[in-house]
Design brief:
This protein has 155 residues and is of the alpha+beta class. 30% of the residues lie in helices and 30% in strands. It has helices at 42-60, 73-83, 96-100, 143-154, and strands at residues 12-15, 20-22, 30-35, 63-69, 88-91, 104-109, 112-117, 120-124, 130-134. The strands form two sheets. A seven-stranded mixed beta sheet has the order 2-1-5-4-3-8-9, with helices on one face. The longest helix has 19 residues, at 42-60. The mean pLDDT is 95.
Length: 155
């Protein structure tokens, strides 16, 4: 299911910066929210480092970047320190936000159907509407460049 053209679901989650974050905090800004399965795993690390490497360019465009997983804040802190991540990671242990964004549910992994985090990304425009939704990211390492390319075309 694509969220494109719809109002982005609101959320309030604790971030790795020690603050509570809600979508309304970013009204008037473009927000990239990427959902990933787990800190310190190979694919998630490649994706996070890709966003890290593009962070300065995204910030220069006025884009806010948030990563979301079910991991604890302590896990996020370790992940951030290990890879020098300059953006906030949100902790969604109950998967409430991820479910609202279609980033948690049934997925097939190694031929088995399981419940879990679906690697995906949304771009929320300044008016709070989802302008782009990658509902299933296949290549974690290449995805940050896809997001940057989309944002460059919108500029």
């Amino acid at each position: 299911m694509s969220l494109e053209g719809q109002k982005a679901p609101d959320f309030t989650l604790e971030g790795s910066d020690g603050k509570m974050h809600s979508l309304k905090d970013y009204a008037g800004q473009t927000v990239v929210i990427y959902f990933y399965p787990r800190d310190n795993t190979p694919g998630c690390t490649k994706e996070a480092c890709g966003f890290r490497d593009l962070h300065q360019d995204l910030t220069a465009r006025g884009v806010v970047l948030l990563g979301v997983s079910r991991d604890s804040l302590a896990s996020h802190d370790t992940f951030i320190r290990a890879f020098g991540l300059p953006f906030t990671l949100l902790s969604d242990p109950a998967a409430a936000m991820m479910t609202a964004y279609g980033a948690f549910g049934e997925k097939v992994q190694y031929g088995k159907t399981t419940m879990g985090t679906i690697r995906s990304t949304v771009v929320v425009g300044p008016d709070g509407t989802v302008v782009k939704h990658w509902s299933k990211v296949a290549k974690a390492d290449a995805h940050p460049a896809q997001v940057a390319e989309f944002l460059a075309k919108r500029a």
